[in-house]
Amino acid sequence: MPLHGPTLRTAPRRSRGAVLLAAGAAATAALLGASSVPATAAPTTATAGRNGASAPAAPDISVANVKAHLNQLQSIANANGGNRAHGRSGYKASLDYVKGKLDAAGFTTSVQQFTSSGATGYNLVADWPGGDPNHVIFAGAHLDSVGRGPGINDNGSGTAGILEVALTVAKQGYKPDKHLRFAWWGAEELGLVGSQNYVRQLPAAERGKIDAYLNFDMIGSPNPGYFVYDDDPQLEGVFKDFFATRKIPTEIETEGDGRSDHAPFKNAGVRVGGLFSGADYTKTAAQAQKWGGTAGQAFDRCYHQSCDTIANIDDTALDNNSDAIAYGLWTLSGGSTTPPSGGKVFESTTTVDIPDAGPAVDSPLTVSGLTGNAPSALKVGVDIKHSYRGDLVIDLVGPSGRTYRLKSSSANDSGADVVATYTVDASSETANGVWKLRVQDVAAQDDGYVAGWKLTF
Ligand code: TRP
Ligand code: ZN
Ligand code: CA
């Protein structure tokens, strides 16, 4: 059945010859250039790292996603007596939420149990498979709240920040040179109990493999400061570099040295670093001058109070600090983002006619010289000349024969041409082989041709 009849037409029908003539000039012009497909998609490219080495650009972490995790933690507190404290049901529910996300993303998780104040506590440890096991870059945050409130800034913020960074590692298929480990600590509020337990049970040889432990406890304070731990000059320098690129001044963290989960690592001889946006200390006039906010008021007036809710978060601080975590991990771990071949382009510039209301036509493209599977974000650039693109159904056909729908037909889309870049999860296909762009014109009156298409691996 045709998707639209002649009476629905708004665009005047052009003759096939006119279409070819008009579009042919454009296609010829494009063929003279490097590519027949205009650069519509921003390419993801590696940039030089801070030491001049080729390192992949650290991703921009979605603060919306971080906030979504915080909203979940708030809901968990609401459903469990208003808190997520050690030994209470809201703690285990928080752990299950974080663990579920990590397991689904491909992390290897483990839960470590301990007893404190007569209640069972839990640490959650998540390893990203791969990287040099003798060089571990480790990020941690405490997952428990105090009993008096939901603990959304303290420390839902660090919890959600490192969770979203971990999920971004997975989403990007990041392949770090060093091994990445993340942990969410229990019973920090009872005196760093979970992290102390972890470090105590860790064999000395394993401690020696940790190149850096980075701690994130309170990174979204409502009247924020930007504090960097100064325990290790190199780790301090990495974070300072990041904030310098954003023109955000920083200060050294002094609000109670050793008051969080980095202390047990530091005491065991591990190099530590971290970020902090302030707790119950008062913001000075000079600090309000450089960071904004309110002088004479605590960085977090709801610190350890029932009002440490989802309303107790400064989104900008949360955003900047989440991006800083990603920058720190990417910078310290080296590595590359899949695919290793990074942006290899295969292109067809063969013209293939698309018959009006006819059978599907294929434009084949042979890919060779790659290894392994295609990426989970394969870019498919399409350049089709057509006088009524709503007629067109477009699929990518992988070497396995499996098809991936790029575009459906639409009776209402009367625009001409399809010039677009689609992203396809092609990770179940081998990269090498014959790929096809399959195009069918499903409604009568207008036609066109494939001018070219390309795959970016
Ligand atoms: N860890 C403290 C808590 O959870 C908060 C805190 C106070 C803090 N001072 C700090 C965290 C300095 C990191 C650095 O209650
Ligand atoms: Zn606390
Ligand atoms: Ca048609």
UniProtKB/TrEMBL annotation:
Keywords: Hydrolase, Metal-binding, Protease, Signal, Zinc. InterPro entries: Galactose-bd-like_sf, M28_fam, M28_SGAP-like, P_dom, Peptidase_M28, TAT_signal. This is P/Homo B domain-containing protein. Belongs to the peptidase M28 family. M28A subfamily. The keyword Zinc applies. PROSITE patterns: P_HOMO_B, TAT. Residues 1-41 form the signal peptide. SUPFAM superfamilies: Galactose-binding domain-like, Zn-dependent exopeptidases. The keyword Zinc-finger does not apply.
